[in-house]
From TrEMBL:
This is DNA/pantothenate metabolism flavoprotein C-terminal domain-containing protein. One of its GO terms (biological process) is coenzyme A biosynthetic process. Belongs to the PPC synthetase family. Residues 54-120, 178-306 form the DNA/pantothenate metabolism flavoprotein C-terminal domain. GO terms for molecular function: catalytic activity. Pfam families: DFP.
Amino acid sequence: MATMHDNQLLDNGQGVIDPDTYFLRNNPPSNLAEFEAKTSEFVQYHKERNTPVVLITSGGTIVPLENQTVRFIDNFSAGTRGSVSAEKFLENGYAVIFMHRQFSLQPYSRHYTHSTNCFLDYMTLTEDGKIEVDAKYAAAMATTLAKYQKARSNNMLLLQDFVTLSDYLFKLKSGTRIMATLGRSAMYYLAAAVSDFFIPTEKMAEHKIQSRDGALTLTLDQVPKFLKPLVSVWASNGLIVSFKLETDEKLLVPKARQALEKYGHQIVVGNMLTTRKKTVTFITQDSERIVSLSQEELDNDVEIESKIISELLKYHRAWISHGTLEGQ
Ligand code: 9Z3
């Protein structure tokens, strides 16, 4: 438990601790060493081959209410943005570290999970008792399977997962620091929906909170601004793209701009909860541009991530060649 004196030293006067203090006060996930070993091996492999690498974060973090967790607060995100984007980056020759919320959507398998179809509906039983893919799904599944197998057999896709906010923050710090050895050819695509509020370990109930005391009042602390050290220290040379989710249209661009100014990274992609699948806004220090799908594109099942990624590839080429976004 921190003393009053510690708190005065470590927080910003509004009760928000800094990221270093967060990492001192919270325990790392038990599989952090394994996460780091796999990430280092993957990054080294692609460094030797000069392949650009993108770290994609995807899905929502949870904030537990109890140490022995029965209840938790979740963040909205199915993992669609991240998993579709991973496929588009792979198609464009990027190696992908896909850091996702456990059991959220993953590249390629997303076509068959979390749908109204049970996976068994894709199969049929032949008369002699063999299992086959139902003919009406077979062609599309063969295409998806081939892409998935190519990505895995060429070591282009590393799947890593997280569940809690703490899990996410420790892995984000380790992952970005390992990626930093790639310099400007690293891209960070921060699409995960990350909690803004949490209960610090020392204030958390150990056991399941009991209902006998009546209504439950929760006080949550603010999560430290981890994008600050990410931009200035952990991932200093790479191209950093964060996402900003809002529900009030008026706030989207001002909040995105505020984030750019506060953290000093290169691009914020703003999206509204209700329209995120058909329109996003790219915000850089000197520009603001809406990217949308036309009705025809929507009718043809074009995914907005193909447009997001083709924009980002231009920015990344400029970034790799001269360290700015100009001339993209
Ligand atoms: C996003 O804005 C993502 O695009 C979505 C994707 C979460 C909306 P789905 O996974 O949804 O396709 O269902 N992600 C960033 C959300 C976030 O927490 N951003 C922080 C903020 O807005 C900054 S890192 O402050």
